[in-house]
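User: I'm putting together a small comparison set for a docking exercise, and I want a reference complex before I start. The sequence is below, and the ligand is flavin-adenine dinucleotide. Could you produce the 3D structure with the ligand included, as C-alpha cells?
Assistant: Of course. I'll restate your input first, then give the C-alpha cells for the complex.
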Amino acid sequence: MILVFGEEFERDVTYELVALAKRLGDYKVVVSEDFDDIDGDVIRVERLNWKVVKELHDRFKPEGVLFANAPSGMDLAPKLAGITGIPMVTNVIKLENGDRFKATSLTYGGKVLVDLEVDKPSIFVVNRGYYDPNEGRGTPKVERLDLDFEDDVELIEVVKPEEDVDISKAEVVVSVGRGIGDESNIELAKELAELLNGVVAGSRPIIDQGWLPKSRQVGRSGKTVTGKVYIALGISGATEHVEGVKAKNVIAVNTDRDAPIFRIAKVGVVADVNELLPVLIEKLREIKS
Ligand SMILES: Cc1cc2nc3c(=O)[nH]c(=O)nc-3n(C[C@H](O)[C@H](O)[C@H](O)COP(=O)(O)OP(=O)(O)OC[C@H]3O[C@@H](n4cnc5c(N)ncnc54)[C@H](O)[C@@H]3O)c2cc1C
C-alpha cells in the first residue's frame, strides 16, 4: 500500500501525488484540509504534523510513502525518514512499483538524472509538474481520524506570498529574460500576452531586478508552467530555468542560435526580441481586428 501525505500549503501538488499513487497500486491519501475531490480513500486529520505522520505510518505500514517537494512535504519527509530509518529519495520525477521501487531522481541542480532501485519500504519526495493533477481528482471515500496530537511546533499564522496571478495554471505564458534589455520593453511582452489571452512571466534575473513580482518567476526557485504554450523571449535556457518549463509547446526567440533554450523549443526564432515584438504585436492586432 502507498501512503500519500497531502501538501498543506500548496494544495494542487497533492493531486499530482495522487495521480502517481494510482499508478503504483492501492493507496490512501492523508490530508488536513477540506479536499473534496481527491480520488480514492482519503483520511482527514485535524492537522498534519510529524507525530500524525508517524502514527499513520505505523498504523498502515505502507510499502511506499509519498510527499511533495513543497513546504510541508520537505518538512515532514526527512522527519519520518529520521525517526523510522526508512530510506528517502528526493527530487523524484518518475516512480514505478515492482519487487523494488524504480525511481528517477533529478540531482545536481537538474543536470543529472539518476535511476535508482530501492527496497521497500521507502519514502519519496516528488517534484511537481510530472504527473497530471486531473488524474488525481475524483470522488473521495473520506474517513475522519481523531489524531489530534499536540505539536511541539505551534503554527501561529500561515503567510502566503502575495500572488496576483497563478502562472503555473495559465495556458499561454509569455516569458521574458535578460535579453529583453530594458524594463520598459516588458510592456511589449505584456501586450503580446494580452493579445494571446496569456500572462507574462520571467526568468530569475528579471524578478531579481524587480521588473516583475516573484510570483511570475519560472524555474527551480519559482514556478513550473504546465500550459499549452510557453514563449521564451531572450531567455538563455539555463537548467534552473528549464526545470520549470513543462508547457506542451515552447517557442523561443533568441539572438544566439546556440542558446540552450532552443533544445526544448518546438519553434525557434533567431531574432532580436525587441525588433520582433512590435511586428508580432501589430500582426496579431491586424488578425484580431
Ligand atoms: C540555485 C539556483 C536557482 C535558480 N533558480 C532559477 C529560477 O527559478 N529561474 C530562472 O530563470 N533562473 C534561475 N536561476 C538562474 C539561472 O541559472 C540563470 O542565471 C537564469 O535563468 C538566466 O536568465 P536569462 O536566461 O534571462 O539570462 P541570460 O542567461 O543572461 O540569457 C539572456 C539570453 O538573451 C539572449 N539575448 C540577448 N539579447 C537579446 C535580444 N535582443 N533578443 C533576443 N535574445 C537576446 C542571449 O543570447 C541569452 O541567451 C537559478 C540559479 C541557481 C544557482
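Helices lie at 12-24, 50-60, 71-84, 186-195, 204-208, 239-242, 273-288. The mean pLDDT is 92.
User: Thanks, that's exactly what I needed.
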